[in-house]
Amino acid sequence: MNLAGGKGGVGTSTITANMAYALGQAGAGFGNIGVLDLAYGANSTLSKLLGVPPLRSNGFWNYITAKYYPYQDSSPDITPALTQQIALIPSGTIEAHRIDWALSYILSKMNNDPDKVGWALYNDLAELIINKLARYMPSLVLIDVPSTIFKPLAWAVLMMARVVNVIVKAGSTHQDEAMEVLELVSAVINQRAQMGVPTPDVFLIVNQALPGDNTANELKSRGAPMRGTYVLPYSPAVHYITDYMKDLAIKYDVPQDKFFRQWRETILAIARNEYEVARQAPKVARIPFKRP
């Protein structure tokens, strides 16, 4: 899973989309790659970069709200979008404000018990992956988790992840928010260990770093749990391709931008190295749960 550390705009979805393309482009040799976008409403950068316009195709939030919320289609047709060797379940057609209402309704139905909600969403997430992505036999499933995510859902994803990338924006301004996310990751790691479930490998990705940036070392000194770190430099070309061309920067070569090659090589290293980590990690047995 790629988890935003701190406020929105740290680049989590952009990194996920480029990782997915690096692994899932034809001939890459990694097999089919599953991708799941958990963004809210139109704020679905991952789906947009992988060719699915926002609010056009049923997806994750259609699946979740259909199970609990009586004001949504109870049996939405969800078909992953296929691009090269990538099978994407987009965020869906539900607007952000309707998702908020649905989540409030789900909480009230479960007596405002976040643990109960978390386990239910864990079960739903596993069912969605098995029912909709497993048919494509993905060698890896990437789950994009935005900063605004419903915390019981973040917990559910953390409970099943083999690799957790916490993505933070370079600089000291938002380190406190990043530490809150890393503390949640640490708490779930401890919970998994107590249950006898293999714990995930945690990596820190520092995004848009300027030369001499010390964000990774500063977070390490504050006790952030991590197996390793990656630093993605700020590249004007990446910014232009992503924000103005609305495309995947990994597809291009921009020799005149001296930071672009370093950015591209680091994205490829993250994708390849963590593919190997995820494939070699002990399998996480699905914990059976009876729906409330």
In the sheet with the most strands, the strands line up as 3-4-2-5-1-6-7-8
Total number of helices: 10
Spans where pLDDT lies below 50 across 5 or more residues: none
CATH topology: Rossmann fold
Question: Can you tell me about this structure?
Answer:
- By secondary structure, the chain is of the alpha/beta class.
- It has one domain: P-loop containing nucleotide triphosphate hydrolases (Rossmann fold).
- It is built from 10 helices and 8 strands.
- It has helices at residues 12-24, 45-49, 60-68, 96-109, 114-133, 151-160, 175-195, 215-221, 236-243, 260-280; strands at 2-4, 33-37, 81-83, 86-89, 140-145, 163-169, 201-209, 228-233.
- Strand 7 (201-209), helix 8 and strand 8 (228-233) form a beta-alpha-beta unit.
- Helix 1 (12-24) crosses helix 10 and helix 5 packs across helix 6.
- The two termini are 26 Å apart.
- The model has no long low-confidence stretch (mean pLDDT 90).
Helix-strand blueprint:
Layout: E1 2-4, H1 12-24, E2 33-37, H2 45-49, H3 60-68, E3 81-83, E4 86-89, H4 96-109, H5 114-133, E5 140-145, H6 151-160, E6 163-169, H7 175-195, E7 201-209, H8 215-221, E8 228-233, H9 236-243, H10 260-280
Parallel strand pairs: 1-5, 1-6, 2-4, 2-5, 6-7, 7-8
Antiparallel strand pairs: 3-4
Helix pairs in contact: 1-10, 5-6
